[in-house]
Amino acid sequence: MNSFKNIEEFGNRTAVYAERKYSYSEMLEIADGICSKVGERTLVFCLCSNNIESLFAYIGFIRGGVVPVLLDASIHIDRLHRLINLYKPSYIWASSDNQDLVKEMDSSFEFGDYTLFKCPKIFQHILHEELALLLTTSGSTGSPKFVRLSYENIFSNAESIAKYLDINADDKPITTLPMNYSYGLSIINSHFISGATIVVTNESIIKKEFWDLCKEQQVTTFGGVPFVYEMLDRLKFEEINLPSLKKLTQAGGKLSTNLSSKFTNVCNQKGIQFFTMYGQTEATARMTYLPYEKNLEKAGSIGIAIPGGELNLQDENGNEITAPNVAGELIYKGANVSLGYAESLFDLSKEDENNGILHTGDMAYFDQDGYFYISGRIKRMIKVYGNRISLDEVEQFLNEHGHDCICAGTDDQMYIYTLKEDSVQIKKIIKEKLNLKGFKIIKIEQIPRNHFGKILYSELPKNA
What we know:
Layout: E1 14-17, E2 21-23, H1 24-38, E3 43-48, H2 52-64, E4 67-72, H3 77-87, E5 91-95, H4 99-104, E6 106-111, E7 114-118, E8 131-136, E9 146-150, H5 151-164, H6 182-192, E10 198-199, H7 208-217, E11 221-224, H8 226-234, E12 247-250, H9 257-270, E13 273-279, E14 286-290, E15 304-305, E16 310-314, E17 320-321, E18 328-333, E19 340-342, E20 357-366, E21 372-377, E22 381-384, E23 387-390, H10 391-400, E24 405-410, E25 413-418, H11 423-434, E26 439-443
Helix pairs in contact: 1-2, 5-6
């Protein structure tokens, strides 16, 4: 399955707006031209930004059977060298201004502001015939681990997303997330297979230029992780006048209860459909969605399985949980479940190791109507004085009581990090409401996050 072959039918429709319009025909001509310079099926590193150079190359490589590894354009050169040594790409598609690459490699082709750098030593990769793409797991900043995605993974998920979001050729999303992030890439894939127009920008949502572009191009939809919605809240989204906006999507972590309720109400007033979704890179992107009309009734829920997917729960012994309101590990089945991981080039020939089944590592339960709720990560459970504690549940409890906190810890020691001078109030709530011992409250200036807005718990201090 390779549905970027099918988008040729959209011909003269506008595929991309990036300072000017590019039709599907023009995009495909450029994309196929970039891929032709690589020639054979091999491995190419793509140092991505939200620009036409990155986007067109990705389309061309997928169409031409070249396997791209999508990396952030700002990747540190030391990490890039480490990955080059482990995976030995034949080419690197990157900004022509990348001085490290200019010094080390020859240029074999240029388009726009990007150059196809040819690596000095060409390695003959043995690639599994279904392998289409490598993506980093969203939490890995320094890890060489990639998720191996097949053509079926990419396009079955794109078709499913297009179905439940009712994406059509009149939709106009704008890029608010990195395309090397599975969520950002899923927006691109699901809209291109639907003949929609993608407005491409690297501008931040806090910039006036971003909103001017939204108005000028009559953007209909965009997606964001919780951090994006926190910024939208600070920008007073309820006062932003954008009549063309019809759909907002949220994934990449749980939105706080307060913000979720606020955006539900604001979107209802503005006539915007607000979709909460859940997924992992290991499932290409999406696994569940909450229908927008259920936002108030099922507040806090990740919803139901996407079309073509199945959800179930397993207890500690691997038995299926069939009763509502009983927590267990969330298991997902679907054609979008990845082939497995890669940690070096020798893993690129591996067969499908997951067989369509993903153990998510998340604890969840479902209600009497079959709607699922995440209760925490299995790895975010600790034992303090013999009591099993979910760090996610404590975090959520404090957020619901008006404290902007995050929690981390190990057995016998829980750390609560706050941005405000509210340690006394937090201590009182923890002792009186939760009756917990063995915790330490630390005030920090800001929450460490990666490029995708996800919290980097490992970088939190252990001492005040």
